[in-house]
Amino acid sequence: MIDTKLLKINDKSLEIARNYILDGEVVAFPTETVYGLGGIAFKDQTVKKIFEAKGRPQDNPLIVHVHKDYDVDKLVEVEHDYVYKLREAFSSGPLTMVYKSRGVISPVATCGLGTVGIRIPSHSGASEFLKAVDVPIAAPSANASKHTSPVTAMHVYEDLKGKIPLILDGGKCDGGIESTVLDVTTDTPIILRSGLVTAEMIKKVVGKCEYSNNKPTDKVRAPGMKYQHYTPKCQTALFRRKEIEKAQKLYDESVKNGLRVYFMCDDGIASFLSGNKLKLGKNATEIAFNLYDMLHEAEKVCDLLIAFDVDTGSDVDVGIMNRLTKACLRF
Fold first, then answer.
1. Against a cut of 0.70, is the pTM above it?
2. In tens digits, what is the pLDDT along the chain, a chain of 331 residues?
3. For a tag on the chain, would you pick the N or C end, based on fewer CB atoms within 10 A?
4. Distance CA 235, CA 295 (A)
5. Could you tell me the maximum CA-CA distance found in the chain, to the nearest angstrom?
């Protein structure tokens, strides 16, 4: 078993991280969305370690992370001029763009696809780490596959202790859900995975944006498109907002049967419920920030988590609901 170090980000820990990375090891690091588990994107054996540490399906491609001064065009081909407008507007930040690959990224990371997703994180700790190593880093979320994504270094430690050598602690992630994944190989940019950069935001920059009509039988083109994700280690039940009475009845019956039960919902719904509550906040930004943290908290305090759909009127709701419906079973 590996001795897993958990270190605050400073010059010394970045030097340790750089040595691990250049030796072909993997390191967990913070981003503004969630913590990532990264290794050199060029090396097949290093990328395989990422899949092994997570228990990740072999057909689920990884996103490649670089710092803002890295020449992305060494890795990809830009086929449409609108890409440059998107880069100017959203780099660095929580947007992953899927390009035609030049073939220099490991096929293990791309799962043999002719495309690769590239992201430039805005988190200061991520930027320091990526500049220190100065190589493209393939990185999915730093958690056991299908478990709730990590937004603190301790979440990573609880999942991957003994499997990786180092976790860089950069505090709690301030975005809270994974990046938007956008296919930029087509005439119109297509959202493959919703996130904090919304379709409306993209349309304001380039005038057009669509959502993918991905079917369950289609080949996975980006993380989060196919498999169940984000699941806490407790029973879950997801209700629609109009089903408050039904949810309250389930809560009351479950408590009578000796279960520890909590509601998880936005502040508006919370005011109509009686019982233990994990409140997500009053708007989409707060809800996205708190979602994974509350899912981690739920598995520590309850046997059954009763969650509700989110509808704040924000386009970010699409990304939040993408995660909720994969984390919780519809009742």
1. yes
2. 899 999 999 999 999 999 999 999 999 999 999 999 999 999 999 999 999 999 998 888 999 999 999 999 999 999 999 999 999 999 899 999 999 999 999 999 999 999 999 999 999 999 999 999 999 999 999 999 889 999 999 999 999 999 999 999 999 999 889 999 999 999 999 999 999 999 999 999 999 999 998 655 555 656 655 555 789 999 999 999 999 999 999 999 999 999 999 999 999 999 999 999 999 999 999 999 999 999 999 999 999 999 999 999 999 999 999 999 999 999 8
3. N
4. 11
5. 61
